[in-house]
Queue: 2 jobs
Job 1
Amino acid sequence: MGTIIESYSPILIVIAVMLTLMTTYTSLDLFTLLRNSEKNNRFIFLGGISSMGIGIWVMNFLTMLAMDTYSIVGNQIPLTLLSIILGVSFTGIAFYVVTNESFGFVKLLLGSFFMMLAVFSTHVTGMYTLSLGIQYNLIILVPSLLLIYGSFLFSLWVLFSYRNIIHTSNVWLKPISAIIITAAIVEGYFLLTKAAQSFDSASFNANSTQSQEQFVIYLVLFITILITAGLLWSSTLISNRLETSDTYLNDIKFALDESAIVAITDAKGIITYVNDKFIEISKYSREELIGQDHSLLNSGYHPREFFKDLWRTIGTGHVWKGEVKNIDKEGSYYWVDTTIVPFLNKKGKPYQYIAIRNDITKRKEAETQVLDTMKDIQDIKFALDESSIVAITNEKGTIMNVNDNFVQISKYSRDELIGEDHRILNSGYHSKEFFKNLWRTIGQGYVWKGEIRNRAKDGTYYWVDTTIVPFLKENGKPYQYLAIRSDITERKKTEEVLHRQDKLAAVGQLAAGVAHEIRNPLTSMRGYAEFLQLDETDEERQEYLSIIVEEIERVNAIVEEFMLLSKPKEIELGKKNIIPIVRNVISLLEFHAKKHKVQLTFENSMDVMEVNCDEDRVKQVFLNLIKNSIEATPKGGTVTVSIQLENEGVTMKVIDTGVGIPPDKLKKIGEPFYTTKKNGNGLGLMVSFKIIEDHGGKITVESEVQQGTTFTVQLPLES
């Protein structure tokens, strides 16, 4: 028994090493493409394992040729094919394990083990093709297998481990890995050959050359070289195509890198690529980001359900879009508008994700400011709605919105108001020039302030202190108006009462100083006129004297009213039924009404309405109001007197169908010496207003020209 011949042919050994290196590099190149591509995966995988398996077999085959073994030994073709198949199969298992998506250290150990089996099985079957009895020296074999295993473990770790050739741009890793694997294969065959021994050296040298079988062996070698060359050509062709595709992809990548924040992760969310903009906004270096997941940037702003929904979406192969708040390395927050696109394999499962982001921090800050401003506006609006009457109109004055206070005071519904203009509330009190001045002011972009008398839906009047603010476009033209009003009806009524009282006081002072001085001469004048009448026989002179007496009586009546203002009689209150009082006044004026061709009617809902009042003073008021209404209907018509019980008081209305009172004169009614009658002095209405005010009531006037006038007297049940 002796060792295998150790005389080697250096040329064949060099050829064997070169061919193994080429096939190994080709195999690694194809496996790299396999990890980076989703197309033709099966073809690339088969090409990779075939190239590696044939490289292992070529090393074994040429090593035996280098020993000049086949020149004397009959070779067995089936065992030779089995040697190739075993090498390819074990290589396929090894690389299937290490190229799987879920790579780990255990799989690295398994891959290295199957690579060792590929070398060992190819060597054993190759040796058994010799017509020799071969056995191995275990003392040499075991360390040899461990060295082969360690070499493959190191080379596969370099090639497929974390932050490896697939995830970096270091072009030297693949050649280095190919050299390490080739060295492991060469080392393995020489160590295994060293461990092999033969039983019969005589028979080793006895057999003659079988030229036919040698021809077949060389033919197989030639075919192997052709296959290897074909694999090299296929790898080159695929690389060229991928290079063309990479140029296109690089253009797209360049465009994305210039315009967006880009990151690529694997199926588990581990970052495998970031562009410069990602580094710039996150303030982390590329080395700090690669290998991490996006929890590194988690600001804590979003709830867990937010990210669960994100992963649920992209995990099922759908694109996710949303806005994310991140935190950078320095602790500053930033917002990104994010689109995450999953890349799917043939099974429809994501194998990586690309996240394209845009910095929207300034926009979000602006939105926050807008929200804060909106909150302030809402607070202001709430305060206005609670305290003021608010309306918004467009540039033409059409009402666009009103608040509840506006609806309440106008007694129109919101639907009735929107789409109308403020003429719906026009009371007729203000002149056209008043509104022209208003529109002239706000139309020029200035704020207008003033007091307006409006009319509600039920016909009642109310006063509002108004501020109209124009909202301007860039060209300075208003596009809408905001009207803020306050109800000043009670204040205006108080002012009216105070104004009337001031005038009454002035008249009272005048009466106190003048009445007595006028009354004495009047008495003398009347006495002499009546004396002259006694002796006068001339009818014409008698008529003149009668006129003098009547006018003296008229002047005396005015003086009496002056005296009443200067020293008003004390009101004597008592429970009185107001109905008989009014009926009595109407009966006194029936002849006066017929004289003016006026139909006088009385309407009452109850026969008994007791009021705490001074009967004579109230009768004076009713007499004055009804008489005025009759005289305000010169062409005939109707005067209707109505009384009804309302809101713990009595309301009496005197309604005529006369000529009416113009709006500009209406507000002067009740002032001293102001009257719409030719022969009036205005003191009657002034006294009437004061009497009713002394009873705790009030008189209001409503009128439309050529439609008539309504005087309303409101008296409380208890004065």
Job 2
Amino acid sequence: MESINRNALKLLAFAGSNSSTSINYKLVKYTATLISEHEVELLDMTDYSFPVFSEDLEKQEGYGPLLVKLKDKIVQSDALIISVNEHNSNPSAYFKNVLDWLSRVDRNFLADKKILLMSTSGGRRGAMGSLEVVKAVIPRFGGETVATFSLPSFNHTFDEQKGITDAEHSEAHKKALKSFLSKI
């Protein structure tokens, strides 16, 4: 008989990108494979498409079932793992739009959520600009970033079969994940 871990938490993991080739999704997916003591649900954000937010559209159409489904998944989770992509040193328009919609459904949609916030890019900064912007707004929605990790030069430091191949960054990733898991 399989034992059940009654202390297991429900973690929700996703990237801030809706690209079918998202490197941030690859990083989140890899991170999720390293967690065995908790239940991790991995979302593919290509399944979550929303119109560009506007107050007029909100008044006319309200909140669609897909948006409510995403909000409910977040609210029902115990903690989050998010990896944000970067466009021009900021979060992508897609992720900003997701945050805008979610905050209209429930301003505190991240209430009491502990978050491991990550980022990666092909460049040397590893999408740090985006990570810092998102980290700064998370408290506005009730969440708390308890650990961060940024992986620079993704195409040179990550392999889909092996994960993070650079020893220094692999160790930093393990440390961030361990810190996150100890705080949830």
